[in-house]
Amino acid sequence: MPTTTEAPLRSCPHCGFEERSTRERCTRCGRSVLIRAPRLRGRRRTYVIWGGAAGAVVVVAVIALVLSKVVSDRNKRDEAKAVKDVAAEKVRLKRIQAPHRGSAVELRPAAGASDQTVLAARAALVRDVEGSITRDAQARDRAGELQGPIQRTECGPLLKAKDAVPDDRILSKSIGRYDCVAVKRSVTGEAGQSVGRLGYAFVAALDFKRYTYVWCRNTPAQGERGVALAFVRLDRACLAAKGRALGTGYVDVPGS
Fold this sequence. Notes:
- The protein is of the alpha+beta class.
- The chain has helices at residues 42-96, 115-143, 236-239, and strands at residues 9-11, 18-20, 100-103, 152-157, 175-188, 194-207, 212-217, 245-246, 249-250.
- A hairpin with a 5-residue loop joins strand 5 (175-188) and strand 6 (194-207).
- The longest helix is centred in the N-terminal third of the chain and has 55 residues, at 42-96.
- It starts with 8 loop residues before the first strand and ends in a 6-residue tail after the last strand.
């Protein structure tokens, strides 16, 4: 018996239609499958090339616009979050720097007391405010605001200079301003000498006429090595300030 050979599968070079046939012409478009589709030449080829390039440029431009919008939206979200974070930090700083008040009127010397008695009374008032700051810092430690343990508080001149004299020793000063540290531990040198204190900063203003005082936790502005999220100036009461604000402090309070 004669065998039947299956027609080969072919693809029309003009319309792309695939079929099994031995006929010369495509059953779909009617064109000869033996003649290849003409390649673009001349002006038509140029138009196609430029059209493709223009299309690619449009696609790239659309992608760039989409990416730009995504980045812009992200930047706006980041800026809004930063503004919110700064506002929240200012609220926090204002709360923890709020003035606290105390008094020790029983220490006030009698009228006409000797200079030695007055100096001793003023020194005792400094010790009283140190005790108040220590108790305050320990309470803040229990509340989770600070990381203790807090051992003691040491107060010295607000003006940081080697030859600075504490205000309580200058009888002509009716207001004493102090830079205080709620001490966690002392830092010692190789020879065992104390070279510093590790703790939390406070400030205090003492009234040597009324024997009252105000103290505040201090969060100084960052120096060159760090940038704080926000800065809140200390309340005037913290430093018994009367003058205008200047820099991070007040014009009538040197060292602030």
